[in-house]
């Protein structure tokens, strides 16, 4: 189950005891506080705390840039200007603290975003639960033939069943041995910090993750992209919904300029200019490598 009874009781208690505050709150975020949103088969993401809103971004920008921003007549316009011109520090004025439950192999991808504060559940002091990520059949895929780090077509029929059986059996066997190795009453056993090394990478862990909005948006730009691995992408997509309610103007600008926009190289921009003049441009005349040209063609649709 995604939430333990103790965690659910804690959430119910927190949501049932609202407190008054003088600080700025974001109504869209208030409705998300403490609520655990399920992700994958046993995971979740929930907001523990946050600071700031769209107005905080503008407030910081106007302090930083002074009279130069007076011509911007509204906050949404200022935020779009900041996003468009890659001004990052005003977005750092907003922060969010999350509680995330996720498979270890997803956590190892996630932790590569080193611009956050992280505190992970310790398997040195506590015993991990018997919970493993087992993909749904439609997410069991073969290795891509064109992308060394991606997936190809989904496995079918008996092959899919064979792989699922191996995943389930190996996970359970590893956990059985983990339990057997841990020190039990009447036997010496192995220290928890050593016994955990036998567990597979699909076992679930949990952590608190605190990050500012600028670095969170960078995380979302990479991990909510359709090229990202499915198992981390679904967490990013859930976070996108939360951020859209928290800072709607900032998220709208982010969708427009980052998620929906594109960055072109000098060669790519030159090719577009030549195409607009009616010139037929090919990979050979573009000055791009085959890989660059393929990505450029995908960008143009």
Automatic annotation (TrEMBL):
GO terms for molecular function: flavin adenine dinucleotide binding; NADPH binding; thymidylate synthase (FAD) activity; thymidylate synthase activity. Homotetramer. HAMAP family: ThyX. CDD domains: ThyX. The gene is thyX. The lineage of its organism: Bacteria, Pseudomonadati, Pseudomonadota, Alphaproteobacteria, Rhodobacterales. DUMP binds at residues 109-112, 120-124, 196, 223. This is Flavin-dependent thymidylate synthase. It comes from Roseovarius bejariae. FAD binds at residues 89, 112-114, 120, 212-214, 218.
